[in-house]
Structures are given as C-alpha cells and as structure tokens.
Amino acid sequence: MSEENRRIIPTPVRLRRADAVRSKLADPGITDEDLAEAAAWARDKTTPPD
Description:
Shape: rod-shaped
Number of helices: 2
Order of helices and strands: EEHH
Helix content: 40-55%
Structural class: alpha+beta
Number of strands: 2
C-alpha cells in the first residue's frame, strides 16, 4: 500500500510460483500426502497410488 495525494493506493500482491501451484492443487482437494504418494508411485511404478 502507498499513499498519494491523501489517497491510499493498493499494491498488487505477487504470489510466488509455488504458492500459485499449491492454490490450484488445493481447489480439487489434492493434498501434500496425495502428491507424495503419486511421486513415490512414479518413482517405483510397481503399484498404483490409492
């Protein structure tokens, strides 16, 4: 925020790229645990994630 001529000027918040990704993943309900399971499955490729 800044002030100019007695007016408050809002400044946009810049999200970090990771925050934007987390936000998009949270919308459909994907959790950190889901991501960890998917990553482990992709590395192992022997059994599908639950």
